[in-house]
Structures are given as structure tokens and as C-alpha cells.
Specification:
The protein is of the alpha+beta class. Helices cover 40% and strands 33% of the residues.
């Protein structure tokens, strides 16, 4: 009888702590989901602000973006220390065909890439499904050719802020002060935010 009472007491104690553990785990999961939801809403608001700035500088891009397969927007901070520059930022890609958002990150580093302590905005326009899918599924890293194309088109005329990164991809980079006609995206890597896209 005595042993039965001990076993029963231990069982009750186990169930009490077990219930507490699972309740805490459930609360943590809810809080994590809330944090992810808040972060997604923040990126959507930033996306809208970025597009508004682009449309102010280049009104014709609004029609181009709406007709494209999809687009991506990024905000990032650039800094240069002892001639070594870096940029880190966040953003999202939007599929115009199905309305799905994919949340992404970016970073870059190298010699002379930054303009020192500035906030940058970058907008990608994807003309084809393949270009869009490659960007979000495989990530993308800009090469030297993308930087060169930012400066002149085939006729040797400035591209008005547009960077022809590769077939089916056009990029606009700017600050609060306006478009960067000598913009560079060379050495910049864009990739999916795995954690944020789980929720």
C-alpha cells in the first residue's frame, strides 16, 4: 500500500511537470510565430516604401513591375572602413502570378563597394519565370558584368539607374536622395531566409 502511494505520487508529479513543460513549449511556439508574423509585416511595409521611392524617381517602372513575372525589394546598410566595404540587408520577393511572398536576405563585402554609411534600396525586376525561380530557389550572386552594365547600355548611354544584371533580370539601386547612376551590385549575394519562410 505504501509503495502504491509513492508510485501514485510520482505519477501525479510527473504529469504535473509534463503538463507544465508542454504548456511552456506551446507558448514558446506561439511567441515564435508571432515574432515571425511581425517580421513579415515589417518587410511588407518596407517593400511598399521601397516601391514608392522607386516610382517617385522613375514613374515608368510601376507599369514594368506590374507586367513582370515578379520582383524583389531589399533595404540594406552600407559602410566603408579602411577602404573595405560591406552591406547587409533584408527583403522579400513577390510573385505577381500567384501573389506569394518569399522572404530573403543579402550581404556583400569587398574593396570600394560601398559609399560609406548609407542606407540603400534595391529593386529586382524579373521578366521571366525562370529568372524569378532561380533567384529565390538557388540564391544569386552578382558578378562583375552586372556592375559594368549598370553604367552604359549598348549605345554607350547611361541606363538611368537600371542595371541589366543578366537575361531577364533588371536591377535598380538608390538611396533616399535618388537613383545611383553608377550603382554597383558586384559581389553581393542574395539568398532565402530559411527560418522566416517556415512560418
Amino acid at each position: 500500500m505504501k509503495h502504491l502511494k509513492i508510485i501514485l505520487s510520482l505519477f501525479i508529479l510527473f504529469m504535473t511537470f509534463s503538463g507544465f513543460f508542454w504548456e511552456e513549449k506551446r507558448k514558446s511556439r506561439i511567441e515564435l510565430n508571432q515574432d515571425k508574423f511581425i517580421e513579415k509585416q515589417k518587410r511588407i511595409r518596407t517593400n511598399n516604401k521601397t516601391l514608392e521611392l522607386l516610382y517617385d524617381y522613375l514613374p515608368a517602372t510601376k507599369t514594368k513591375l506590374l507586367r513582370s513575372y515578379g520582383y524583389a525589394t531589399f533595404t540594406n546598410v552600407g559602410a566603408t572602413v579602411l577602404l573595405v566595404s560591406y552591406e547587409n540587408g533584408q527583403g522579400m520577393a513577390h510573385n505577381n502570378r500567384n501573389g506569394i511572398n518569399t522572404y530573403m536576405n543579402m550581404h556583400s563585402g569587398g574593396l570600394g563597394l560601398g559609399l560609406g554609411g548609407k542606407d540603400f534600396y534595391t529593386v529586382f525586376l524579373f521578366e521571366t519565370q525562370q529568372a524569378y525561380n532561380n533567384f529565390i530557389n538557388s540564391g544569386w550572386e552578382a558578378n562583375a558584368q552586372a556592375d559594368i552594365a549598370a553604367k552604359y547600355n549598348e549605345d554607350g548611354i547611361a541606363n538611368n539607374g537600371a542595371i541589366t544584371a543578366e537575361n531577364g533580370v533588371v536591377v535598380y539601386k538608390f538611396t533616399q536622395d535618388g537613383l545611383l547612376l553608377q550603382a554597383t551590385i558586384m559581389g553581393t549575394k542574395y539568398y532565402m531566409d530559411e527560418e522566416l519562410n517556415k512560418y
